[in-house]
């Protein structure tokens, strides 16, 4: 800081989240991609944008408007008011979200249990704000954990305790142990957060039998589960998709977090939460947790833009409320890219029989997910932000250090690759550059 | 609660804001207006919707798209990405907001100091989240206070200390006294919140000389001012509009909270904050407070829908970035309504020379604001939610008890009337019904 530069405040005067690595690292990742715009980005988890179309946005808006008038019988001035005036805190496309969940996920939802949010991020934020009542509360989360969850928890002063993921997607013995450990310490584990389908960042999915055991454990331990499902629709054709936790949930154990960013458009910033848990209020009034979340929402964003909701609503209506059907092209692009990436890794890092794995220096390995956007590559050296910066500058390829998804400062020997926003040609170039980086790094460390 | 009704949680398990009157009263006010849809509503602070037009929304979107391509030189795929993909946390219409503030408010702003938010509510929330670092922090706010500010403060566990408004809009002696009182108690007053123009709910404005004295006091006491300005454009033609605090601010004392809900469309849910305060971070890096707010925003809503921003951007572009020009019809409707309401009150409640005021039983009085949406009527009896419910049911007129704008449980003998969402004919009917209620209530209490 130069002596001449005026300063009005310091970060230490502000909320502690602002000095926390979770928030600053998110910033760092954005800055790196701005710093090296010419690099191939295998970092961005953005959806494929080749099919984005502004004309479709206009059409969706009109489709939803016609739905208000023709299907729901609104007078023109009522329809105009719904779209353009202040409105219902819980949203105006809740009925279509209920139909979508019935069609695509086999989830039966009362539309009154839906809160339409400003992206899934606000849904997470509202749930964590509601659940954090005091300093004894903690949140459990399967590690590695989506950064947006950890960041939202920081903003409401809610500690996040990692639960081992293991190869099954969630280690139930560890989950039980963490619950017991928290309770023994006088703390209150409010919920366990996880992405059961093609998790960000691990790429792992949980199989049906294990989902059932997880629900049983949650009932036994009286624990809520926060199920985040942005990628479920993007499975390969190799086998049937397991049902969501919410579809299996008979005891209102699951708060379901939904996103339209990947299945419709990120630019609408529309997500939702299904919160059917029954909450007793003063005077013995009982209503859904959704109503409590809406009260919080009224003081965060008032309501989700009805114009943005109408874009999503129109898209849903144009496809019979099924986003499976609407995403045929996108799904095959992601599946193609995922296979291309995995094959490309196998070609560039063949198994080397003369260099057997050693515990402290494993070979290059990677996950082979059955869908979603992400592959995790394990390498024989620690991967940090400095290496990413060097990768962008000297090698022209960007990726995400897995250390960003762990809530501690231990070195992590892994990086995340995303296939969602690139072409097969870009994957080839990116993998060539990544292979060069890894080879150089191994040589450097051996030398 | 019936014995058969299942319960999963109680409000007492959740964040304390959910049991707080600030949040539940907001809910109550919404419920009352749903319960009596046939009543004339002098309660709603919604903008006049007669000129709302879905075709204009389509046009604004296209106007902004053309601006990206023609004025800013974006390639078609770049423009599409900006509108539909994930994007810049601080927003994409910041340059147009800077032009708008220069044109309409005489405020010079670096676009990098702007954060585009999901309505002004999110702007308030971000600022309060940033400023509340620990339990010693308190916020000062001119009373009566906008409910959305108090609600946002509740969500971040930040106590709100009232500062007397007085007839000048803010009582500077009381402001200084509250600052000293807080500091003497070991607390840290982070800022003082106020609406200098046609405040919600008081209708009061602060004159230019008093604004200058307020800025001097803020400098002397090293205090930030949070200036909220949703109504400034809607002044009558009776005299010049005083400059905003931000226009007078030479010491980066003012965080300016802006809204497009009343000047463009509530349904876009777009607002903004100007935060040019210089913040020193770790390693001596100095940047605007706006960047810190953006880090918080990335964990609350990620970014504001670029589609919604484009609607606002297009409207700005179509009017040379001046919303004064764009709101000629709206402003004359509000001015007409305000005069009609004040004249209607004078006709229905003439001064009664044979019933002189007594301290414990004043006659009916009202404010005469020079603009904005709100008139406060003082009556000779306490005004509470039960009376509002009776007014809706038995008299067919809705209004807002002023008690909702005070952060305590003292009875308040006043109610707020809004002129923004009604016609002169509805004002006549509403005032007839209100006069009947007041007369009956005075008779009942005297009897």
Automatic annotation (TrEMBL), chains A, B:
Keyword RNA-binding (UniProt): no
GO MF term list: pyridoxal phosphate binding; transaminase activity
The protein's required cofactors: pyridoxal 5'-phosphate
GO biological processes: alpha-amino acid metabolic process
Transmembrane parts of this sequence: none
Pfam families: Aminotran_1_2 (PF00155)
Domain Aminotransferase class I/classII large as annotated: residue spans: 84-434
Alphabetical keyword list: Aminotransferase, Pyridoxal phosphate, Transferase
Position of the signal peptide: none
PANTHER family (UniProt xref): AMINOTRANSFERASE (PTHR42790), KYNURENINE_ALPHA-AMINOADIPATE AMINOTRANSFERASE, MITOCHONDRIAL (PTHR42790:SF19)
The protein, known as: GntR family transcriptional regulator
Native source organism of the sequence: Micromonospora arida
